[in-house]
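step=encode ok
step=design start
structure_in=
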C-alpha cells in the first residue's frame, strides 16, 4: 500500500527521475544489508544506487 501511495506521487516525474529515486532506494537497502545497518553504508548505497539509476537509458 505504501508503494502505491509513493509511486502515485511520482506521476509527474520523468523516467530518469523515477530511475534515480528507485536506484537510490534499492541502493540504500542494499547498503544497509551489506554493512549491517551502518548509516554510512546506507547513505553510500543510496548515492551509488541513485547514480546508477540516473545513468540507466541515458
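sequence_out=
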Amino acid at each position: 500500500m505504501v508503494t502505491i501511495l509513493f509511486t502515485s506521487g511520482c506521476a509527474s516525474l520523468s523516467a530518469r527521475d523515477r530511475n534515480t529515486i528507485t536506484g537510490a532506494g534499492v541502493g540504500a537497502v542494499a547498503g544497509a544489508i551489506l554493512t549491517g545497518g551502518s548509516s554510512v553504508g546506507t547513505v553510500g548505497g543510496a548515492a551509488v544506487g541513485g547514480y546508477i539509476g540516473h545513468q540507466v537509458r541515458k
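step=design ok
step=annotate ok -> Helices lie at 2-8, 15-34, 39-55.
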